[in-house]
Amino acid sequence: MLRQFFSIMGRYLRPYRKHLAWSVLLNFLSQWMNVFSFAVLVPILNILFKIDTTTYEYQPIDWDHVDMDVVFNNAYAAVQELITSYGPFETLLMMGVALVVMTGLKTLGYFASSAVMIPLRTGIVRDIRIEVYNKVLRLPLSFFSEERKGDIIARMSADVQMVESSITSSIDMLVRQPIAIIVCFVTLFAVSWQLTLFVLVVAPLAGWVMGVVSRTLKSQSSSVQARWGDIIAQLDETLGGLRIIKAFIAERKMAQRFADTNEEYRRAINSMAIRQSAAHPMSELLGTIIIVIVLLFGGYLILSDSNLIDASKFIYYMVILYSVINPLKEFSKASYQIPLGLASMDRIDFILKAENPIREIELPQSLPAFEEKIELRDVSFSYTPGREVLRHISLVVPKGKTIALVGQSGSGKSTLVDLIPRYHDVTEGEVIIDGKNIKSLRISELRSLIGNVNQEAILFNDTFYNNITFGVENATMEQVVEAAKIANAHDFIMESENGYNTMIGDRGSRLSGGQRQRISIARAILKNPPILILDEATSALDTESERLVQEALERLMLSRTTIAIAHRLSTIKNADEIFVLKEGEIVERGQHEELIAKNGYYKHLYDMQQL
Fold it and tell me: pTM score > 0.70 for this model?
């Protein structure tokens, strides 16, 4: 578990090494102050309360080989000298002030070490979120067709939050508590190495018990986060399909489905929370057992007049041992929290480590402009092995020409046009632009040559202006207005409350279907691409909207190379060439009149629409 934890931290700690170094230094200072603050009390309590009546004299200290007995002897001698010079009460007062000062320094170091770790904790979480978001932008469309959107949102939100609350909060524990344990055990060895060896035999048994409980938490946490992903996915589906739910009077069914999902989540989190809540009482009990065992063993040594340890040192030993119990408990607490974060990190890594088959070669060729033609040579494609969506497609689109793809739903039209901008890579064959295989081109240059107008206009919850200029740098207002006029969008934009600065709502929800499509066309006009892909751009519109959109499309298509997927065959009568697809294969090709005259599959589709 810790190996995986440190592997994750190794990925994200590099920019924050200074914060980590300062935290280690401040924690060391804080913990030594903690040890010395207790050491101040032992000699004065021994002498003030007549526990020790020995007269001490200063002895020289060999700094090459420090003897702790000599150190304690000189401390007692210093206290005796203070009592002789100032009196018992004044000495107690001075020692009290010294204790306050040391405790103040200890708490200041504790605060500073925590404060210096906050930028590290929040920075790591920020870096993970940015890394996940950037990976989502780079992943191919096929990845999201196989995964539920709600589950991906849960991985980016709830799972990252769990990493923040468990792993990054544990960094502080894993820096502070080991330092506290090391400092305390160094002190314990200095006071009595024999008694400390006994403690080191007993303590690992308690650690083993804690480990047995914590190991199951990772799998439980993974289950809990998966259930939470189900909840988010169902909520996303409900918001997207609310109109259908109401239309089919399915509110009760959806409510029951959501309640069942929530109940599964509640059961999973109950089981995990019960086990997690056992951490504190179990560590409290085990810590007390260790203290009692050591107390009995130390008491036995003192009562049997052993020379291994005397009463005053044993008091100090027990104080330091009790001080090390709390870091051990906090360390065990981290062992409960870390598995929760590791389970979430596994779910996040599902996205971060997902394979992206759309790769750019190391030295891509440049294609700054489109000059000649697009060619598909014997192209086949399948989403899953053995199930081909396209089979042996060959076609040529000369520059400035318009071709149309027609066929029933599921015939492979949209998949075919998705191969040109490399949203997917061909399984067999080649896609060639101006004699260059698109796999050898820089992806950004390839896609900059292509404009899309889809059946569903994809807009963002932003202003008209920002939606039209999306992906186009340094566009002037005059250019935006001109694009909107060509797209038949200027008039309804100016009728809105704030003109081009009006917010259009989530996915353009404040607009009609025709208005959304015209904004999409204006965006394509402003981009001014030499290659245009129209994916059934008018199929979902009423007659009036279709007329306005069709006018805008005809202006957009002027002097451009266009590939149009047609739902209504009447809209592509003037195409230079029509390709008819059936079950992933081109079965007919030619102009409208030629295909009608053939009296084949195209004529069948055309007659069906006329009816």
Answer: yes
